[in-house]
Amino acid sequence: MKILKKEQVASIPLGIEAIGLLYGKTINDNECNSESSQTIHKNNIERLENIIRLFQDEQERFENNFQCFIERNAFNAFVSFADEAYKSRGHEATGVIFGYYFHIKNNPQRKVIVATDFKPASGPATAVTCTISYDDVINYNKFCEENKMIQAVWIHSHPTYGTFYSGTDSAMLSSTFYAFHQMGVVVDNVRNQTMGFKIINGVEKHENVVLFDLYESLLKNKLQTQVLYHKQIEVSKPVVKPSDTEQAKLQMHSISEVDSVTTEVKDKVNSKKKNEGENVNSKGAKIEMQPSTEGHKNKISKKQAQIDKVKYILRILKHEFSRSISIREYIFIVIALLLLLCYVINLIICVWLK
Question: C or N: which end of the chain has fewer Cβ atoms within 10 Å?
Answer without folding.
Answer: N
